[in-house]
Amino acid sequence: MKTASAAVFRREINEDEEEEVCDDVFDSEVDSHQKTSKNLKGFFTSLLLMEEHEKQDQEARNVASRREMSDFQSNYRKRARTMSDYLSDLTEETNPKKSRISRAVASVSAAVEIEAESSEITGSGSGRGSGTGSGQQRRLWVKDRSRAWWEECSSIDYPDADFKNAFRMSKSTFELICDELNSAVAKEDTALRNAIPVRQRVAVCIWRLATGEPLRLVSKKFGLGISTCHKLVLEVCKAIKDVLMPKYLQWPDDESLRNIRETFETVSGISNVVGSMYTTHIPIIAPKISVAAYFNKRHTERNQKTSYSITIQAVVNPKGVFTDLCIGWPGSMPDDQVLEKSLLYQRANNGGLLKGLWVAGGPGHPLLDWVLVPYSQQNLTWTQHAFNEKMSELQRVSKEAFGRLKGRWACLQKRTEVKLQDLPTVLGACCVLHNICEMRDEKMDPELMVEVIDDEVLPENALRSVNAMKARDTISHNLLHHGLAGTSFI
CA torsion, points 208, 209, 214, 217, in degrees to nearest 10? Predict the structure, then answer.
């Protein structure tokens, strides 16, 4: 019994020793793990601190770089201004004609200031040395311009009278034009900037045509760049020519021709007249090619100033609406040659467009089977005087229409900045807008009316049709002996 008890006691002692050994091993492993965790925590903390210090150093370098660039630009602007003032004073004292040097230096100074503003907006730090590739994204620099005037004009509360004074048409007519040009003029937004709205695009073009102001003033009014305004004018004029001209400028149909004949006969007593034709001249800058062809001798002699021009020939109905146009021939060409170059001449002579009908021309046009002109010889009879008096009433219709055209679109009264190859498109757009205003009974301020003066030259061969000569004599006889002629010639 004692031996068995001793064995059991020794076994219990051994088990206790093994448990103590295991406890010691576990405690040592726990201590080792805690030490390792502390070491790792300290390592990661060191990395974070290093990154934070590196970011702070990079920000400090960026701030110093921006401050250095700002100081450099400020000093450069000061030196440019000083040099500009010095050269300006120097050139004005020595030779006023060389003052353009000072203006050039001033423009350089302005360019430097703009570049400085651009650098400040886009940011001088691009993050190239950060090591993380997280530099600032560059942005498109756009000069800040005021659009207050246009925003005021486009508001609902803006008075219609003021709007019409600025754009030569009412708000309703303007909205009609915008709606019809929307598909041809609208642009989509891009990632760099928002597209200019259709209403503003059309307004830039119409205001430029209506006022004839230079592009720098158009830029200030609408808060756009000068080149942008020039581009918008040409784009909208082309859209007007392509979209609106086929609708608002076309030869009348049979029913319209009948109404026109009746109206003209009521005015003049002459039957079968379907239009009043007139040719006017638009002043232009001397072109670089074919200068002699565009030289206008008659305007030069009258104005005592060298003049160049381009022609517009139009047929007008009793309401002052253009029904046929011929634009673009040089100003040195007389009216009869312009007529021969027109599509109307070809359609009437070869296509029989005006068979049995008359277009009332002026002294510069020849007498044709379809063109009726006044007597031009001296020592006229009473019958011929009576006829010429009635023809002047027909001519007044087309002259007044051109007077409203030039009065409504002041760009036609002075030499324009548009290139010669783009000028027919602009002139065509003015004529289409004129038709829209006339059709919608847009009243024009009488003060804007322009007196049209074009020195007409008699053609070398004024009588080109024997039948037309006989018909004109018959019309003259009927006017006088049927009591249809006036008495102002007596």
Answer: -20
CA-CA distance, 490 to 484, in Å (whole number)?
14
Whose structure tokens read 């004018």? 233
481: amino acid identity, one letter: H
Question: Residue 462: what are its φ and ψ, rounded to 5°?
Answer: -80, -25
Token pair 């000069």 in the structure block, residue: 143
Q: What is the 3-state secondary structure (H, E, C) of the chain?
A: CHHHHHHHHHHHHHHHHHHHHHHHHHHHHHHHHHHHHHHHHHHHHHHHHHHHHHHHHHHHHHHHHHHHHHHHHHHHHHHHHHHHHHHHHHHHHHCHHHHHHHHHHHHHHHHHHHHHHHHHHHCCCCCCCCCCCCCCCCCCCCCCCCCHHHHHHCCCCCCHHHHHHHHCCCHHHHHHHHHHHHHHHCCCCCCCCCCCCHHHHHHHHHHHHHHCCCHHHHHHHHCCCHHHHHHHHHHHHHHHHHHHHHHHCCCCCHHHHHHHHHHHHHHHCCCCEEEEEEEEEEEECCCCCCHHHHECHHHHHHHCCCCEEEEEEEEECCCCCEEEEEEEEECCCCHHHHHHHCHHHHHHHHCCCCCCCEEECCCCCCECCCEECCCCCCCCCHHHHHHHHHHHHHHHHHHHHHHHHHHHCHHHCCCCCCCCCCHHHHHHHHHHHHHHHHHCCCCCCHHHCCCCCCCCCCCCCCECCHHHHHHHHHHHHHHHHCCCCCCCCC
Rounded CA gap, 362 and 386, in Å?
15
pLDDT digits (tens, 9 = 90+) for 259-286: 999 999 999 999 999 999 999 999 999 9
Give the tens place of pLDDT for each residue, 313-367. Answer: 999 999 999 999 999 999 999 999 999 999 999 999 887 889 999 999 999 999 9
Residue 137 has pLDDT above 80, yes or no: no
